[in-house]
# Entry
Amino acid sequence: MSLDVDNLVDAEKGLIGRAIYIDPQIYEQEARMVFARCWMYLCHESQIPKPGDFCTTFMGEDPVIVWRDTEGKVRAFLNVCRHRGNRLCRADSGNAASFTCAYHGWTYANNGCLVGVPHQAVAYNKNFDRKKWPLIGVAQLESYKGLVFATFDPSAPPLREYLGEMAWYLDAIFDRREGGVEVFPGVHKWVVPCNWKLAAENFGGDSYHGPWAHRSAMSTNFSARRPRQNDVQRFHLSPGNGHCVMGRQPDDASDAPEVVEYEKEGRAAVRERLGPRIDLVRPAVGNVFPNFAFNRGTASTIRVWHPRGPERTEIWSWVFVDKQAPGAVKETIRLTSLRSFGPAGTFEQDDIDNWQECTQTARGPVARGHMTNLQMGLGEEKFDEELGALASDFCISESNHRQFYHRWSKLMNTKDWAEL
Amino acid sequence: MSKGCAASDAVIVHDIEQFLYQEARLLDDCKFQEWLELITDDVRYWMPVMGRRYRKGSKGMKALDKDQYEDREFSTEDELAIFDDTKDSLERRVARLDTGMAWAEDPPSRTQRMISNVTVGHGDTPSEMKVNSNFILYRTRGDLEEDFYVGSRQDVLRSEGGKWKLSYRKILLPQNVLSSKNASSFF
# Structure
């Protein structure tokens, strides 16, 4: 049975029914209608550079192995043994020609084929065909500028079409310089008591909270960023399909001094790669629908909001740098990033407490009965041809939130991609 | 002491244990400025991240490139970390708590630290000692929130002006996915 969520998300009026953060039935529908259909971020190619390299992750709550096969092709499979459903690979990363299930010993090669079944010749009927029992692959897998995505839905549009105009904004984060970016080895993984959408909408469009919620971290120099009076329009951008970006002024240079110097030196090269739009906006924070987010500035992180029930989210966050950046710039970005974002991050701690309380107060039926307010800048957003996105009229706005929830409710109610 | 057992060594071990207990008490009592006084200006305060790897020789995984395969679990000093702080950044973390706007610690967490399994060995210079210890950091916050952080520390203590100070701390928190919503305490 499907619930109609139209009465919970009124994007045109900027009103949100809080059951979407807490109701188990909505969470189940979300797992099917959003996470099992959308393109999900898996990993960065720099994490699995060599044949056999693998990492494990999740698409929604489904465990997945991302595996570069012996020929060098990146593949992704459910991390589930076909025999009895045991989790096949128990490691986060490594290099493997094959995995053998810990329960009965079924073995799968890095192309997904079932290559070993103990006692097959004597214990199984001769009609048992190993070819019929490979690992379950994703329906589609594609990379965009080193970012590996997959979907379980064969009818989902190709990745490039799904990203739409958001692709340029990803270029402006991950493909500024020759060679793109790389991630530092290691990932922050932690569980936070909030609904995943509160994290996604925050990275997608909440510049309002910055100067207040993060003032303690800003005033103690955990960011070189300061609130500016002259941050004018074109700050919040919705390039379509529920993707959201927040941009700074193009001349914004609120980074550590060595990073500012590196950016200045590379400005012409960046413009060459990205075109004149980069003179209009400096993309800084964003969320690719539904649960892949990034920031670049105070911290440079790539992150996934893995849903873990309506009231829990597992955050996985990596720190990234331009591959060709000098060592000193990379080290500065590593340090400023992990001190501001991550479990001990002076910015991130304060976010999570707010998302937690926004989730948990929705437990009460009376509190839940009152819709929350996303009306800032309502009706003032306009499509900006140069930026290829719906743009807010002011430096703070909830225009991106409205686009995020509009997309979410459409996906929840619509089975056919053509109707979205 | 790892080598020898002179009577003077027993005094040093006792002094160092008392240092660790007093440090834990200052942190439990939220006396962060006093805690900073126990730390040298050149400290590296570091908590690497953990990853889950198959053991070398595991039958669960056949490595394609055996010679290259590493089963190291914790990140190295130039990789990602949960904490990687200097005296300056520790001072700023403490200053942040006093801004009146450090929301994740206001109302504050309450903590109780248990420090144990202390072993002491000679350091790289005559004024330094290598000190290992285990910890349980119990934290409560809000109404019913409880966290247990359980791990170990590899410290270097240096004698400065007749007093021990912390000049290096590596904190190992063996949780692959941190079960707490943050690491807002000092370890």
Observations:
- The CA atoms of residues 213 and 354 of chain A lie 9 Å apart.
